[in-house]
Amino acid sequence: MADPRWLSPAEQSAWRAHLAAHRLLTHRLDRELQEHGLSFNDYEILVNLSESPDRRMRMSDLADATIQSRSRLSHQISRMEAAGLVTRENCEDDRRGTFAVLTGKGWDTIQRVAPDHVAGVRRHFIDLLTPAQVAELDEIYTPVIAKLQGK
Q1: Long-range contacts: 136-141, Cβ < 8 Å, 24+?
Q2: How far apart, in Å, do the first and last CA atoms of the chain sit?
Q3: Phi and psi at residue 98, in whole multiples of 5°?
Q4: By the 8 A CB rule, do 14 and 106 touch?
Q5: Which of 58, 55, 63 is nearest to 103 (CA)?
Q6: For the whole prediction, is pTM greater than 0.85?
Q7: CB 33: neighbour CB atoms within 10 A?
Q8: Cα 102 to the chain's mean position, in Å?
Q9: What's the chain's average pLDDT?
Q10: pLDDT over threshold 80, residue 1
Q11: Phi/psi of residue 99, each to 5°?
């Protein structure tokens, strides 16, 4: 086995800064969403459903989109069903398939919460950067995401 290519001090600093920023930002936004009775995962699911045709997605596609296991997503959807935010519907063309569907209450919730969430994203992230830095981040993360998604 070849010796590992250790990170240089600059690379290690950048990596640790990325990890810390991601954790701190996610934690802060999750806390702010909890003030609305939602978790960060709940919000992510509501966003995906709200942006999908007919406000519905196959559970398998939703699991992929939210980077969750099928079983974890199923438990999450069960909690959200109990709160009246989503329902499940069988897929007519595939008896094994199930859709997660945004309810009227779910739609009202995303409409009510989104402005506060976006304000938090701006306050804690976007407004701390210049437009050039925002563009650089997009340029930096696009190939990383593509590689990890196998594209």
Answers
A1: none
A2: 28
A3: -135, 140
A4: no
A5: 55
A6: yes
A7: 20
A8: 16
A9: 95
A10: no
A11: -100, 145
The tens digit of pLDDT for each residue in 27-82 reads: 999 999 999 999 999 999 999 999 999 999 999 999 999 999 999 999 999 999 99
Q: 37: which 2 tokens?
A: 């009775």
Say how far apart CA 15 and CA 23 lie, in whole Å: 12
pLDDT tens digits, 137-146:
999 999 999 9
Sheet holding 98-102, edge to edge: 56-58, 98-102, 86-90
Neighbours of 12 (CB within 10 A): 11
Tokens of 94: 């595939």
Cα–Cα dist 34/32, whole Å? 5
Three-state SS across the chain? CCCCCCCCHHHHHHHHHHHHHHHHHHHHHHHHHHCCCCCHHHHHHHHHHHCCHHHEEEHHHHHHHHCCCHHHHHHHHHHHHHCCCEEEEECCCCCCCEEEEECHHHHHHHHHHHHHHHHHHHHHCHHHCCHHHHHHHHHHHHHHHHHHCCC
Q: Which residue has the tokens 């919000």?
A: 43
